[in-house]
From TrEMBL:
Protein name in UniProt: Sialate O-acetylesterase domain-containing protein
Transmembrane spans: none
Matching InterPro entries: SASA, SGNH_hydro_sf, SIAE
Keyword Magnesium in record: no
GO molecular function term, any single one: sialate O-acetylesterase activity
One Pfam family from the record: SASA
Signal peptide positions on this chain: 1-21
GO biological process, one term: carbohydrate metabolic process
UniProt KW keywords: Hydrolase, Signal
Domain annotation Sialate O-acetylesterase: ranges: 109-362
Keyword check for Hydrolase: yes
Length: 478
């Protein structure tokens, strides 16, 4: 009996030794089957293996090439791989520390990182009682065989940077996966994939009602001493998604070392109370993300808030916020803004026409990041204004092929004199130019002009590509 017990103990010890000696390699969850990895890049893959073991990494795009790394005393390792040019070819990456782990069905193409609040989070199938226009067709025609891959980061927060993993996985873009994925992000990826003909990986990292501060790191917020940082030991928050650094730490930080092509941003509703602070935070966030993804000029495209009544349709808080977004879009490089003045809904903060939002984001990417020519990627943007014969002549950028409607009233303009009282204005496009003439017979000396500058106000000024003009407000004299 004693001999049998000793034998069982020896057998258990042997099995434990073997399990330890040949522990399976594990990787951070951002790595998995069906992944799209960034073309022409150096990628850093982190994982764990047996302590102090040798890990041999091979990638099928480079047959015969072995990358050998060693796990440290805690079993952690990092391996660097150079990726090829994007193509429709499927690849495999394997890790061997005595037992082999392989990632399959890999594509190499372009990866885009998407973040923001509920309008980015809103899935193709819509929120309950709030649909997405065209969702049924998008879902039923989705094909898992297309070279689009989706990753949704599950909501999480942390008071300190989390370097290991996020909860989520890469999925092929079949009907079920598309239905649950961010609508704005999916329609962006769908249009991009149609045009550039390389695989597109799209990461949705968003949280409803989140403030910009929550998506920024402590380093990004270092220049804002009035913004209180959370206590690292704190366990509960009254507004988790509004607390500085919490979402960046848990949902963005784990992507460090994962190259992307660019970034999409759909956020601002939670920051409309202080547009001037947002104007200072946004450039710091942009600079921080470009440093995080190791691209000084990383393409960054964002969505201007659509018309919505907020407390009242004629209030100006959202209008003032849109003005800040417009100014940011003109001041920063490799930054594009999608105009949504034609896509809003007076009673729903989540406008349903997300297909247009995603495709307009794709227009920016195609023109700016991919160099596609022959079209204008955005609608008219205010450039200058001057008074002539009692009327204001407003010149627009992105109207070089003409503005519309021609020979018909332009709706949405208001004008004011020195009393600051705005009146509805008549407006017409000066034929074959990018200039709109704006006037009101009751205002003989115009001082201010604005377009769709209320919380909920729509207009009809577009360019020849039917892309809408951005709302604006301008003072001609001080």
């Amino acid at each position: 009996m004693i001999r049998n017990v000793a034998g069982m103990v020896l057998l258990a010890a042997t099995l434990l030794f073997n399990a330890t000696a040949y522990s399976r390699v594990t990787l951070r969850t951002i790595w998995g089957d069906n992944i799209v990895i960034q073309q022409n890049s150096e990628i850093l893959i982190s994982g764990t293996a047996n302590r102090a073991s040798k890990v041999v990494v091979t990638a099928s795009w480079n047959p015969g090439k072995r990358v050998v790394v060693y796990a440290d005393k805690d079993g952690s390792f990092q391996a660097k791989l150079l990726t090829p040019k994007g193509s429709q070819q499927y690849y495999q990456v394997c890790f061997d520390d005595g037992e082999t782990l392989c990632l399959n069905n890999i594509l190499v193409g372009d990866v885009w990182f998407c973040s923001g609040q509920s309008n980015m989070e809103m899935p193709v199938k819509g929120f309950r009682g709030q649909p997405v226009t065209g969702s049924l067709d998008a879902i039923v025609t989705a094909k898992a065989t297309r070279s689009i891959r989706l990753f949704t980061v599950k909501n999480a927060w942390s008071t300190t940077p989390a370097f290991n993993s996020v909860e989520g996985k890469w999925s092929a873009a079949g009907p079920e996966a598309v239905a649950d994925f961010s609508a704005a992000a999916y329609f962006f990826a769908n249009k991009l994939n149609q045009v550039v003909d390389i695989p597109i990986g799209i990461i949705n990292c968003s949280w409803s009602m989140s403030k910009i501060e929550a998506w920024m790191s402590r380093e990004m917020l270092a220049g804002f001493p009035a913004i209180a940082m959370p206590d690292p030991e704190q366990k509960e928050f009254g507004w988790t998604a509004g607390t500085p650094t919490l979402l960046f730490n848990a949902m963005v930080q784990p992507w460090q070392g994962f190259p992307v092509r660019g970034m999409l941003w759909y956020q601002g509703e939670a920051n409309t109370g202080n547009p001037q602070l947002y104007k200072k935070l946004f450039p710091e966030m942009l600079k921080g993300y470009r440093a995080f993804f190791h691209q000084q000029q990383m393409p960054f495209y964002f969505v201007q808030l659509a018309p919505w009544k907020s407390d009242h349709k004629d209030s100006l808080d959202w209008a003032q916020f849109r003005q800040v977004q417009l100014e940011l879009s003109q001041e920063l490089t490799h930054v594009g803004m999608v105009h949504t003045v034609d896509l809003g809904d007076e009673v729903f903060i989540h406008p349903p026409r997300k297909k247009e939002v995603g495709e307009r984001l794709a227009l920016w990417a195609l023109a700016d990041a991919y160099g596609v020519k022959g079209f204008t990627p955005t609608g008219p943007v205010f450039q200058s204004a001057s008074v002539k014969d009692g009327a204001v002549e407003v010149t627009f950028k992105y109207g070089e092929f003409g503005l519309n409607p021609e020979n018909a009233p332009v709706e949405g303009f208001e004008i004011a004199g020195s009393d600051g009282h705005f009146l509805p204005a008549q407006a017409v496009v000066i034929n074959a130019t990018a200039v709109v003439k704006v006037w009101n017979e009751a205002v003989s000396m115009p001082v201010q002009v604005r377009y769709c500058f209320r919380n909920y106000k729509t207009g009809n000024l577009v360019n020849n590509f039917a892309l809408p003009a951005a709302p604006f407000s301008y003072t001609l004299t001080k």
